[in-house]
Design a protein that fits this description.
The structure is a single chain. By secondary structure, the protein is an alpha/beta fold. It contains 10 helices and 11 strands. The chain has one domain: 2-enoyl-CoA Hydratase, Chain A, domain 1 (Alpha-Beta Complex), CATH 3.90.226.10. It has a 6-stranded mixed sheet, with helices on both faces. Strands 7-9-10 form a 3-stranded mixed sheet. Strand 1 and strand 2 form a beta hairpin. Belongs to the enoyl-CoA hydratase/isomerase family. It comes from Nocardiopsis suaedae.
């Protein structure tokens, strides 16, 4: 698993996640991603951040097999890792552009919903399979991407929404062919990077300050119910069924 950062001449810090086969991150992976975003945002030369992933999908969320092997302690640590990564994207002093291709599930929705700008490939789709996996979480971030009633339906049914749907809602800025996603995202990040960095950073701080809901606190509230489901056995029952049935990219958790 690799998380790499490259700083472009225009001040765009490009952070790429490459965790085959489906970009499902372990607790350590979420913490490393948080650290990479925090480091990029803290660097004076960074004017914008591009967050993207290698492979056919942006993120399949949490590595559920790690949770099942490690029990309650692993669940606590992955909860903390996800919270740290989402908070790092949301609170990054420089605006974050997320480039989403293929599946964006569970924790992937948490990342995209924490970003300032989202671009998506034509094949991208967004879903929270948590209810099928005995968990809850990232509804906070889904609600930043789709209207409230659709978010509820997506949580209850685990049904996906397409990039085209999110573009119609205005939460995805552009939908582009998969082969042009990185280029288009770098263009948008470059547009941001071309502005006065002090003004843009104050704009980011001011926009976060007027959010009606702080997603960092809201998400931690959600995570408490995941832990409750783990304690009462529902979480383990559904995750055991998932792990026993074989991994599938449509089964992320956040």
């Amino acid at each position: 698993m690799e998380i790499s950062t490259a700083l472009h001449p225009d001040g765009t810090a490009e952070i790429a996640v490459d965790a085959p086969p489906v970009n499902a991150l372990t607790a350590d992976g979420w913490h490393r991603l948080a650290a990479a975003v925090e480091a990029a945002g803290a660097a004076p030369r960074t004017r914008a951040v591009l967050l993207r992933a290698e492979g056919r999908g942006f993120s399949a969320g949490v590595d559920i097999k790690e949770v099942q092997r490690g029990g309650g302690a692993a669940l606590v640590e992955v909860n903390r890792g996800c919270a740290a990564a989402f908070a790092a994207v949301y609170a990054c002093p420089a605006p974050v552009v997320a480039a989403v291709q293929g599946y964006c599930l569970g924790g992937g929705v948490g990342l995209a919903g924490s970003a300032d700008v989202v671009l998506a490939a034509e094949d991208a789709y967004f879903a929270l399979p948590e209810v099928d996996r005995g968990a809850l979480g990232a509804a906070t971030h889904l609600s930043r991407l789709v209207p409230g009633h659709l978010a509820r339906a997506m949580v209850y049914t685990c049904r996906p929404a397409t990039a085209a749907q999110l573009h119609a809602f205005g939460s995805v800025l552009e939908v582009v062919p998969p082969g042009r996603l990185r280029e288009a995202a770098l263009e948008v990040a470059g547009d941001i990077a071309a502005k006065d960095p002090e003004v843009v950073r104050r704009a980011k701080e001011s926009l976060n300050g007027i959010d009606p809901v702080d997603p960092r606190r809201s998400y931690r509230f959600e995570q408490g119910f995941t832990f409750e489901l783990g304690l009462n056995g529902a979480g383990d029952r559904l995750r055991d069924a998932f792990v026993g049935g074989g991994a599938h990219p449509d089964s992320g958790e956040g």
